[in-house]
Amino acid sequence: MTKLIIDSTCDLNEAMRKHPKLEYLPLNIIIDGKSYKDGVEIDLERVYEVMRKGEMPQTSQIDIASLLEILDRNRKANEDLIYLSFSSAMSGTHAVAHQVFEMYREEFPEMKLTLIDSQGGCGGASLAAIQALNLLDKGHPHDEVAQTIREIVAYTSYSFTIANLDWLQKGGRINKVTSLIGDNLNIKPLLTVKAGKIVIDQLLRGHKRVYKHIIKKTVDHIGPYQDQLVVISHVGDPEIAQTLKAMLSEALPEASFVVLRVSAVLGVHLGIGGVGVFALSQLPERYDRRPAFLEK
């Protein structure tokens, strides 16, 4: 049997988090010099509370002890593992996991371990995780699940925005002058992910224009594959997510949608009010448009 490891850069709802085939691996959030395991020792609302005060918590990658605990526990239960990691271009988490997996394989060659780079995170990783958990529910073999994840990673589009440029400036992606000018002119960034990194796709005036571009890019990316599950993720602003869902429902009447909250460890870099849409340009061979476990 196989289980799926997801780290806390992947957006999860309760049905996903409680899924018996899921192993949750937290990254760390640092507030006032103290480190907390994301989603375990600190919840999302506490992190949002700190952010609303204008503070920017720090983040750090997974710790090896937590990963080893998951490996040891599942080895003893005769479970193999697939780990869908945060983008290797944005964090050292994937590299750490690769080293740990290599070491573990040498000592326990009978255990099947597969590490897959999500080349992103957030709702993009959620698309792959949802399908993987659904396949594991149905008893699909390890290699089929891993192949489906890889296909989804290759087909996933990221279109998202943030409430103001200040968060990009704090994260070092733009300079302070650009941030100040942009905010004064009501400039909003349309962001995407390329080669595993967040990049600015366009700078547009006003939220409404950005939202329209997000819808258009998503519709164009999906093409003829409208009958699919689309993920909408938000940072502490469910009203924005529902607004986008209504717009998408009109543009994509055959699609179904799931709204998720961006994980704390990514939310601190995107800022309150960030929202994104994640969809597929093609559908893998093994695909369920609305897995039953999401309705539980």
UniProtKB/TrEMBL annotation:
Pfam families according to UniProt: DegV
UniProt key word ATP-binding: no
Keywords: Lipid-binding, Membrane, Transmembrane, Transmembrane helix
Keyword Membrane attributed: yes
Transmembrane regions: 258-280
Domain of life where this protein originates: Bacteria
InterPro entries referenced in this protein's UniProt entry, alphabetically: DegV, DegV_C, DegV_domain_contain
Molecular function, one GO term: lipid binding
Function: May bind long-chain fatty acids, such as palmitate, and may play a role in lipid transport or fatty acid metabolism.
UniProt xrefs under PANTHER family: DEGV DOMAIN-CONTAINING PROTEIN DR_1986-RELATED, FATTY ACID-BINDING PROTEIN TM_1468
Name the record gives this protein: Degv
